[in-house]
Amino acid sequence: MQFHSHKDKIIIVDFGSQVTKLIARRVRELGVYSEILTPSQIKKIKDYDTIKGIILSGGPSTVTKKKFQTVPKKIFKIKIPILGICYGLQLIAKLYGGKIKSSKKRREFGRALILKKKNSILTKGFFYKGSSVWMSHEDAVVKLPKNFQVVASTNESKLTILENNREKIYGVQFHPEVTHTDNGKYIFKNFLFSICKLKKKWSIPSQKNRLIQDIRSKVKKGKVLCALSGGVDSSVVALLINKAIKKNLICIMVDTGLMRKNEFKYTFKLFKKKYKLNVRLINASSIFLKRLKNIHDPEKKRKIIGKLFIRIFEREAKKFKNVKYLAQGTLYPDIIESQSPTGSKSSKIKSHHNVGGLPKKMKLKLIEPLREFFKDEVRVLGNSLGLTKDISNRHPFPGPGLGIRILGNVTREKINILQKADYIYINELNRLKLYDKIWQAYAALLPVRTVGVMGDSRTYEYTCLLRAVTSEDGMTADFFTFPKDFFNNISNKIINNVKGINRVVYDISSKPPSTIELE
Ligand code: XMP
After folding, report:
1. Which residue lies with its CA nearest to atom 3 of ligand 1?
2. What is the pTM of this model?
3. CB-based contact 187:89 (threshold 8 Å)
4. According to a count of CB atoms within 10 Å of the terminal CB, is the N or C end of the chain lower?
5. Ligand 1: nearest atom to the Cα of 515
6. Cα gap 246→239, rounded to integer Å
């Protein structure tokens, strides 16, 4: 169980909602440390001293069945304030003798107008004329639980915000954590500061020294290996560990030949010269290309790239003696996703490439200094370590790289074509100051050739697909809406400058049902 010794934290009990992570983020954005636990993890807590508030998340369960997911009754008796959200509210209502009904008639999905019924410490600054909240529920509380009062209603559910002020227990049927709820932040602000009496103490830079100290005391004089890719996560891990143990950190960069144009050389130089890290560069592009020859299937490509990467890394690592640790850029969402609140495993969509297969084989102990953080927090940590903004603000890039952005067979010619197109696209986003407004953008090469005309001649060349999405964490995403003139300009720039491409298309699919990458 990942249960840290932070003082003054908020615990979020995850009942399986798609948006539980957002609750943790909202709390942290307000300067309070928060952790997500499953219902079975909370049962194991013995000492509640550092917990100043508990939030019960939404989820797919229903309290209308005989068996339902719950929390130990004890938490309602130890005077820690509690806020229930959606299922969390229904659970509180059930445990306090209210009535909950499942009904297709009562269900609400999407925005709903919220109507204030009384003042509450939870809703200070929250209501304004015409403000709406984001609903996503089929069950609803239909009879008020004992000792609770109604703070607000919607047209469909009369018992939308409930409070038991004396016991400091509150519940909202809507989702204040999603941006579609107007003023949702106020619910958290009031809960944290006015009800739980917390102080704004948590900030990423304030954690830096603790992290460095933790690494030092864990590793002592041992050596640490790190696979450095130049992405945000591995870069921050490397800088952090370097601050802690300097020369005992060995970074290995495996050049698969599947990176963006110039990116690998740039990163190598930066870490070696500017940050003075102990970095070893392995050029393995020919072998990757050879193994990918005539492989069309996306999953096969992912597996080949992942396995080969591990083999090469392993071979290089053996050259160093006395290595005990492997550093990995595991993030908090990876931890949350591996602890299913319902015990069910979600179906595999893609085999993600990471170095997860390494420690088992190499008998190395893992060191994961970013396991408490969300991606945007890692970027802030990177900035406070002096990491250049080029890297700390860099969009996510998948481990298999251009191997999964060249659809179908991967060849050196196609890599060259795609690198050029992608370079033009990303430069254009930077020039127009759009890069930081987009969560992830890239160019892909489709295995489709079409007829075109350039000058007086016929062309028969590849199609370049451009993708740009906005997202909070990559789990869901919307395609980015560009200003009017953007497409005209970028299409001309790519077609005029990249031999091999005579058509540019833009991907207008969101996730779900599509994914961010194409393979
Ligand atoms: P999808 O395509 O599943 O991608 O919507 C979600 C996010 O994950 C990134 N991605 C990867 N990251 N190794 C990674 O480290 C991988 O194998 C991998 N595949 C996809 C993708 O770029 C997006 O940000």
Report:
1. 515
2. 0.84
3. no
4. N
5. 5
6. 9
